[in-house]
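The following block was generated as part of the benchmark described in Methods. Ligand: coenzyme A.
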Amino acid sequence: MVRYERDGHVAIITYHRPDKLNVIDRQMRTELNAAFAAFRDDEDAWVAIVTGAGRAFCAGADIRSAGDPAGEFPGTFWEKPTVNSFESGWEIYKPVIAAVNGYCLGYGLTLVSWCDFVIASEQAVFGYPEVRIGIPTIVGAIRLPQRIGWQYAMELLLTGEQITAERAKEIGLVGWIVPHSSLLSAARGLAERLLAAAPLAARATKEVARRAPDMSAVDAIRFGETMRLVANATQDAAEGRAAALERRPPVWRGR
Ligand code: COA
């Protein structure tokens, strides 16, 4: 149901349940979490692209599976999707690009609201339909206002309406709209640009950006300076300095 592939330093994670518009049931959630854990732990994977097979990116939770109306998930609080899942923001500090190929609803949009970059096919459709089936959106409600601003977030979350890629770009949810047929090549192009960066320096930068808003300014600076010391001690930092002095392109190793 979820595919994890790696091409060079780029991991491609694909929601692969096309006949059901890639909706998430318990098994799919397990596989999705495993795919992101694989990406997080794969030393040679520096950037990820997430996309969907078929005509949807992901149409949200599987409302036809038994149990929890938001999908059939394990029972205890600690196992709930809001606490322990990729959509809730696992600590992945490598860059992640969403290549949104079609319907991107509910949990699909929650995942996208976590990604660093959102490239949409002109056929993409975004929305949080949950309120229209009588359930709240939790992680989306936590994340979306920080991402796109209050009223646009509330418009999506509280009306449950679906919006086009164009509107999604207008409100800042999408960075780029591309023709449907060039979606993956556009995502690959962005991934290649990201590979110009030393992966550990990029990771340290993203981690500081992610964590800093939850800290006081002084704590954020202390944490950031500690990250700088760690990143400066890597082999790649030495390579970056040597390459600059020798006026040649650096060769990153992620070490
Ligand atoms: N849960 C379970 N199955 C779903 C689903 C969902 N959320 N969304 C789509 N599917 C299934 C359909 O049952 C159908 O399967 P079937 O062919 O075996 O009947 C298949 O995916 C295709 O969906 P369909 O509704 O026929 O496609 P469409 O193009 O007419 O409509 C949507 C597309 C996305 C507008 C529509 O499927 C929809 O509104 N889905 C529900 C989205 C939702 O509420 N998600 C959030 C849940 S929290």
